[in-house]
Specification:
Two copies of one chain form a homodimer. Chain A has 546 residues and is an all-beta fold. Chain A folds into four domains: 4-114 and 222-301, Single-stranded right-handed beta-helix, Pectin lyase-like (Pectate Lyase C-like, 3 Solenoid), CATH 2.160.20; 117-218; 309-388, Thrombin, subunit H; 404-545. Chain A is 3% helix and 50% strand. Chain A contains one helix and 48 strands. Chain A starts with a strand and ends with a strand. The mean pLDDT of chain A is 96. Chain A binds chain B through residues 12-13, 18, 21, 46-51, 53, 60-64, 66, 145-148, 150, 154-160, 162, 188, 191, 221, 314-315, 317, 324, 328, 332, 364-368, and chain B through 12-13, 18, 21, 46-51, 53, 60-64, 66, 145-148, 150, 154-160, 162, 188, 191, 221, 314-315, 317, 324, 328, 332, 364-368.
Chain lengths: 546, 546
């Protein structure tokens, strides 16, 4: 039986966050199936937001987070925002779904009114090492001290500018060959000056970006996300647009069965960037993940990243291992449960050599976890990595557009089945990267079975960030007849090449590259690099290289 | 029946923090009454520390905190460290007591090996605006960027130097008249340079501190504390020495019956400063607080601060108020419980005009709290403050030495009975301040009954920070025949005056200043200023002023 509540009835003080809070609490109390919000533009201020202590993977800054719509320990519940816009003022994560089941969020635009990004148009070149900039938005989030630009938060704590991304004024593409360093000097070497007319002067640049281009100057810290989901199953986000947010647009960790349909990062009028980081991100998720009918543009990192987490063995005892969450942005993510199956691997090849069953889990703190096992750990070596293989997801990414974003299109480290089909990629870096490493990010997931078909790769990798349109991160070591990536098929796609390398495959057991339409870049051949491979089938019109 | 466990038996990997953790867990499991630690110097690293999400009052930085000895939900338990030293490497709170009863910690020295402080000796004066400094300790915690000194933490987040305290090389007093600004220019205006021989050059100074004096250059953030107690009753800390720690030496919030006996902040050989902030601090505590036989020196804030918290009314409904924790460092401290009695006050005079009983408490987040009441709130005005008067403590501070610290000796905002007796104060600022305000810090507590007797005030207030040896923070407004401070008696003390003002009393109903031995400063009279007072008794040899 459907039971529907209306947002408006819970408004007591005109504060949209408080109204959301009351309405969701009432829905929980009454076992309502749906909350409807009348179409409108709602200002969300931190004051009446909910708050939870969150550790958001790949974000860092574990701690209390303000949340506009908090869905917690609920099931079979939908919020239909009816086409509304939530404009969040301050460090706010607009939506969080925690320990819930069958939750649907629909028909919503999200926006943080200011993050830690400064967009500025290039208006002139000095005869010396200077460039004139006209701030377009975000200037208010920065302070200038001794010529350095800082974003400020938490009691005068300063975050220096670290990257600087350039978009073309016409078209809004990442400017060719610029990557994270458009001035061709480190961010530390550039100083800024406010001019009396409101423009700024950047000093110390080596490359002068073309007049009219837009720079996104970032001191961003991932203090929140657009929509954060944890330990929940059956999540649908439908017709949601993220204009701007701290951190990622959507991130789910330890979740199952996720459906993003028309969940897009889209530019607000007059802005080049959307989410501060990845558009979507999935960590230690399981079941079926479907991402379809989305447009991802202007996000300042990949459109999608899926992975698990390697933890490093730092100590052992009798049937007991101490493992560490190695990357700061992985701390506090509680990925182990009693009964989980884990594999041990050497960090260089990342090929599992033992499988164990977890008996007990003790989180000593956000970094070190004590695991006991059913089996002996005698053959397991301190210094190796452990991966939890209990979670395994099938990823379907179809009918999506990925364009004009910083970095890559997709980072795939997925042990389940992956299908990428009928998508358009115009990414500044590699379009699809098989990422994973056991040394720095510790993002885990030996590739299972991947099909990439009927996609268009349109001048990908014109900005930087990688070598091939599709590529594998090489392992530091390979083992004979053992492969990190099992099967990758690239079939019936169109490659409109910007450079030579269509694919760089390394450590793939079976690689198939057939039926693709290749439009080589002017004056260049198109090559496919294949290394450390068992079975390889390549169509004839590409050059196989090593 | 006493049941004693020995620390050594729980050592499995040579890590002292993990051994502590295991031993305390075993004690909890076995209902042991005591844990003994053999005398030794134990290095504590963050790796195997416990961790809790803590909001520590007057510290800020709510979030996960590593803890070496975590006592949680325990009762009737003692740890006797047997004269050991815990040397904490990294951001660690050595001891935390949460939700426990009858806990005793004994015979211990605590030290964080590095905080966010740089101690440097003045070795020379340039002919221009420079001063040469020889770093003595803490240099490794700082980075130099564009001439500015920053402490660094959390992914390249920078904390600029904010204060700069000066100690005399001989005697280790705060240098006369220097307060927080020894260079006589703002911290922002001073730049630093590393010299090849390991010294540093400070540029842009207006006053040159005498050669041989020691500067403590601070970019300190209160990321932890020495010993933190929350929601616990019956806490004894006995024979504990804090050499150095992040934040305060001891802080208790929402605790009752606390006994500090020989709990001291003492200088390690070759260092001028001890705790980064107050030596001891009590927030919303109740019962009996006894601090005796302690020496507090070198701490970079007051020796003791006791107060409650005003929260500001930001909204109201039917029998309902929304109140806000106003100071950032008060957020997350959960001071209200159903059944609590609270008073409403206007922020300027801080005289209560209504008393209410809390029915329900809902923490919307770390800042805003929804309180419902048994009574009508019709006469309560938005914009006024609310104080919880349920907690009320009697403070006995006796036989203590307070010397050579930054700022004041004691900040008293205590509604219960306060006795300060047989103490020696050689503080750089006011020795005893009756603090409280409803506008900035929001530290609450109209003075009840105070006796200060048989103490020696030795050249207090030579550094700055205040006007009188004993003084009241004035209210912004007074009400006829209503007083913020009820009764303050200053009897049989010795005042060795550095300046004129022995006491500045404002808004005290009954003030008695008798039997004190006054040794006036050379060429100066000694005066007592009394304003807005009902009953005043002054000994004849001081000058009464307004």
């Amino acid at each position: 039986m459907e039971k529907v509540l209306n947002f408006t009835e819970y408004d007591v003080n005109g504060d949209a966050a408080y109204t959301l809070r009351r309405a969701i609490a009432a829905a929980k109390e009454a076992g309502a199936t749906r909350l409807t919000v009348p179409k409108g533009v709602y200002d969300i201020r931190p004051d009446y937001c909910s708050e939870r202590y969150l550790c958001i993977s790949n974000h860092g800054f574990n701690g209390p987070k303000r949340i506009a719509a908090l869905i917690e320990d609920m099931s079979d519940f939908e919020i239909d925002f009816g086409g509304s816009t939530l404009v969040c003022h301050g460090v706010i994560t607009p939506i969080a779904v925690l320990r819930s089941r069958n939750i649907r969020i629909r028909n919503l635009t999200l926006r943080n009114s200011s993050t830690m990004m400064l967009e500025a148009r290039v208006t002139g070149h000095g005869s010396d090492d200077t460039v004139e900039l006209q701030p377009v938005n975000g200037r208010e989030a920065f302070v200038l001290k001794q010529g350095r630009l800082y974003a400020q938060y938490l009691e005068q704590t300063l975050v220096p500018v670290s990257t600087n991304v350039e978009f073309t004024g016409e078209g809004g593409e990442i400017a060719a060959g610029t990557a994270d360093n458009t001035f061709d000097v480190g961010a530390e070497a550039v100083t800024y000056e406010d001019l009396p007319d409101g423009r700024m002067l950047a000093h110390g640049v080596r490359r002068k970006p073309p007049i009219g281009n837009i720079l996104v100057i970032s001191a961003a810290r991932r203090l929140g996300a657009g929509m954060f989901c944890e330990e929940s199953t059956g999540i649908t986000a439908e017709n949601i647009t993220v204009n701007a947010c701290y951190g990622m647009g959507f991130i789910a960790q330890m979740c199952g069965d996720i459906h993003l349909d028309r969940f897009s990062t889209l530019r607000e009028e007059g802005r080049m960037h959307t989410s501060d980081a990845d558009a979507t991100h999935f960590v230690n998720c399981s079941g079926r993940i479907t991402v379809e009918n989305c447009t991802f543009e202007g996000q300042l990192d990949d459109a999608l990243n899926i992975h698990g987490m390697y933890t490093r063995i730092v100590g052992k005892g009798e049937k007991e291992l101490f493992v560490r969450q190695m990357h700061e942005e992985a701390t506090g993510i509680r990925i182990y449960r009693p009964g989980d199956r884990v594999q041990a691997l050497e960090p260089a090849p990342l090929i599992p050599y033992a499988t164990l069953t977890v008996r007990t889990v003790e989180y000593l703190n956000n970094e070190i976890i004590r695991l006991t096992f059913e089996e002996s750990v005698e053959e397991i070596a301190v210094g190796d990595d452990i991966e939890n293989i209990t979670q395994e997801a099938d990823l379907l990414f179809r009918n999506n557009i990925v364009r004009n974003n910083r970095a890559r299109g997709m980072l795939i480290a997925n042990r389940g089945r992956t299908v990428i089909e009928d998508c358009y990629f115009h990414t500044s870096g590699t379009a699809v990267k098989f990422e994973s490493d056991g040394d720095y990010w510790f993002e885990s997931g030996g590739t299972g079975d991947v099909t990439i078909r009927r996609c268009t790769f349109d001048r990908c990798k014109h900005g930087g960030w990688g070598r091939g349109v599709i590529e594998c991160q090489p392992r530091r070591a390979v083992l004979p007849d053992r492969y990190f990536h099992h099967c990758i098929r690239v079939e019936d796609n169109e490659f409109r090449m910007y450079q030579e390398c269509a694919a760089l495959m390394d450590n793939v057991e079976t690689f198939v590259f057939t039926g693709n339409r290749i439009l080589s870049a002017p004056g260049k051949r198109t090559e496919v690099i294949v290394r450390n491979n068992r079975n390889c089938t390549l169509q004839p019109d590409v050059v196989r290289a090593d």
